[in-house]
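Predicting holo structure, 2-deoxy-2-amino glucitol-6-phosphate bound.
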Amino acid sequence: MCGIVGILGTEPVATRLVDALKRLEYRGYDSAGVATLEAGRLDRRRAEGKLQNLEARLSDAPLQGHTGIGHTRWATHGAPTETNAHPHMTEQVSVVHNGIIENFRELREELTGEGAAFATETDTEVIAHLITRELKAGHDPVRAVFNTLRRLEGAFALAIIFGGYDDLMIAARQGSPLAIGFGEGEMYLGSDAIALAPFTDTISYLEDGDWAVITRDGLAVRNREGKAVERPVQKSVASALLVDKGNHRHFMAKEIHEQPEVISHTLANYVDFAAGRVQLPDLPFDFADLPRLTISACGTAAYAGLVAKYWFERYARLHVEIDIASEFRYREAPLEPGGLALFVSQSGETADTLAALRYCREQEQHTVSIVNVRESTIARESHAMLPTLAGPEIGVASTKAFTCQLTVLACLAIAAGKARGHVSESQEAELIAALTEVPRHISSILRDEARYEVLAHPLAKARDVLYLGRGISFPLALEGALKLKEISYIHAEGYAAGELKHGPIALIDETVPVIVIAPRDNLFDKTVSNMQEVAARDGRIVLVTDAHEGEAGCPVMDTIRVPTAHAFTNPLIYAVPVQLIAYHTAVLMGTDVDQPRNLAKSVTVE
Ligand code: AGP
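Done. Tokens:
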């Protein structure tokens, strides 16, 4: 997804624009550019590929303007070339854009018909031409932008500067987030607070449909209808520390290793360790009255939700329906008013999850979001928000956010079980004690990391990898397969082990590694049978288990031993081996682990 920055500065801004864009690299991009205003004239530098290429352009031909915008582009319309890189501009206006203008083709035809000359294949360029047309019709920049916004359909965020207007930047938010920062005689704009952290922690967030007229004295926010609105000014929680990898080679490695700390941090937010009790913030419903629970999310967050389904049904006897948000948002599922709908999202900006949330609000559900970004749209549009305290997750592949989501969901399931009379106080204390041990168990797995570098060699040679799990380990099989495929580009599938005979066993031969997630729980023996079926066909098994040597009852290529823990917490513990398997295989394959090809950290478009 693209990154947007803007500065109304008191000194040349080009270098700071690039520094701010570096803090947005985690969003994934394939070209970048900046534009500034100098003596009333707009000028820009752009480059394909990584930001160092843009820095080279700027060092060859510096920009001195004190007003500027910048952009990292994740190509949607038009190849990732310098020509298609933002900012897009005419003599009168320069624009950077995140999102998709769904009606750009008809707008382009309209403008071309009036003589506008297009230099790129992008949807963004129509915005520059539309605003220019309004300016040429005699409108001032504010009116020109207002008229233009009314023509645009789709989800987008914009930052715009104008030739001859040194103290003006206009921003618009329609679906993709935008943060505005307040400085000393300066103003800032970014796709999120992370980009602005080195400049300010005093932030305002635009709401959907807002657009802001920004000068060095402050800002005036208007809504879709052009009516003035107030948005709260708050202290951002984004830390300036996030962009270093510490002593790790990749953000993903750092974030895998942060899990003991951030799980503890998250747990402490929801548990009274002394009393051995869950302590949740006030929620606008009583678990005892809920007819059902609906969970909707995407990707890894959806797998966290699937783990939670097992917990809520087992410990709270609460019927749970879970569906991936891209399907749920269009299904028109019949929901009884007064139900609870849970939305899990690291970014809190995922378009499909947000749409599912809005559907559930229309269906009079209580909506609760579990997010890693408190100020995100999903958080703000939910009736209640439960934060994961994972800290900013930079690697595109979600790791620490996943285990922190599980931590919050586990606490929620315990609270639901208690409220519905199925979890006694002593059982609550037992489950919390188990959760409290998770950081220690994960630390012990991380101490054994070198063995995953060895295991990566046979896996890196595979064309296909199958992950199997039963019961609450089935979502871990799905998550393990997603982790491997998204960062190593090896095809991997997660399957319920009991489904093996219903098709996937046809895949098995000596070329297919089979990763079996099998804690020594009540389903272990069933999974051993599946492993024997795989072994009988020369499948190469990697067994991830806390069972003792020889309990597998069949030859395995490798065994990853994990600590024995309470069955309730196995999903959090077994998440780490599947993360490390994926990470070390991808490192061996030389892929871009933190920013895998074609992927973005937050998918804010459909
Ligand atoms: C997970 O590793 C992927 N990056 C992706 O599946 C992600 O979980 C999904 O896009 C949901 O993102 P969210 O948690 O920000 O909503």
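The mean pLDDT is 92.
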